[in-house]
Amino acid sequence: MNRELTISRRTVECAELSRPGLDTPAGAEGVVGLGGVPVVTGRVRELRVRPGLTVYTADVRDEQNLEVRGTLQPGLLLVLPLTGEADVSYGGCCFQLGHQGGGDARSRREGLALALTRPEGFARRLRRGACRRVVSLMLASQWLADNEEALSAHPGLIRFRGTHLAARHWRLTPRLLALAADLIELRLGMPPLMRLYLESRCLEIIAEGLGALSGSEPMSACTMRPRERRRLAQFREFLDSGEGDGWSLQALADRIGMSPSTLQRYFRAYTGMSVFAYQRRRLLDVARIALEREGISVNEAAHRTGYTSAANFATAFRRQFGIPPSQLRPRN
């Protein structure tokens, strides 16, 4: 496949993509594409560990600016982003998964747990040039039923499971990051033994992830009142317009009619990140588009995004997209 080809459509369905070898032990090495055009390159894998327990791993680079849509079945979804960022929606609720800025990237990683009581659509927005490594575990209804006795001992988890689109972020420990990395790197050369190894890693991830849910109430954009969601959607559109660039948190809070602390709490529930982390990410997206389409210099891109140092801009850009800004070239 030619990596320079582009797809004119803005959205595709998962079922349309060619994914050779995705459900084999080795996974798909190379390209996931559409009609001969690459959508992502790298390595992806989907393995059914037990009835109702499926693990998905991806170590990929996006080759298109594209939205990929699909449907998830009822159950619990655990998502562990190791590197890079992911812009996803479940049932219309948006989440920005990955490093939230500030401090060491490994220590700031957060996972996402999502409850689904009925089939629900999802959308993943790809950004050309972005790289990510992510592990997802789907605990379907059958697996949850088989383990009902153990799970029923945690009332908080029962409430979480029973709330459609309930979502919670939790801090990924170094142990969890190491376990997830093992799943990505795993080569299943001896199926019987490797399946046991794979299952042990998955169960350890599940135990820690569900443990983070058992003692707390669900936090979800989709369990907010409709009026609150509308206000936050309008506020996000305001940020995306660029009108609020350079505003203080107090000024932004006044704009939406909340206190700064309430705005931060609600906005994090709605998007998965703080207001200023969202602003930084959006401005870097704008810079990437300008670098690709206008051919501006790295210094100019840094200036447009409010960075006083081109070196600091390049570091932030590489953290978000996985490549330095100097590697981008204007596209015809």
Automatic annotation (TrEMBL):
Keyword Transcription listed: yes
PROSITE patterns membership: HTH_ARAC_FAMILY_1, HTH_ARAC_FAMILY_2, HTH_CROC1
Keywords: DNA-binding, Transcription, Transcription regulation
Molecular functions (GO terms): DNA-binding transcription factor activity; sequence-specific DNA binding
Domain of life: Bacteria
Domain HTH cro/C1-type: 246-268
Alphabetical list of SMART domains matching this protein: HTH_ARAC
Residues in HTH araC/xylS-type domain copies: 233-331
InterPro entries tied to this protein: Cro/C1-type_HTH (IPR001387), Homeodomain-like_sf (IPR009057), HTH_AraC (IPR018060), HTH_AraC-typ_CS (IPR018062), PchR_regulatory_protein (IPR053142), Tscrpt_reg_AraC-type_HTH (IPR020449)
PANTHER family: REGULATORY PROTEIN PCHR (PTHR47893)
Annotated protein name in UniProt: AraC family transcriptional regulator
Highest classification ranks of the organism: Bacteria, Pseudomonadati, Pseudomonadota, Gammaproteobacteria, Methylococcales
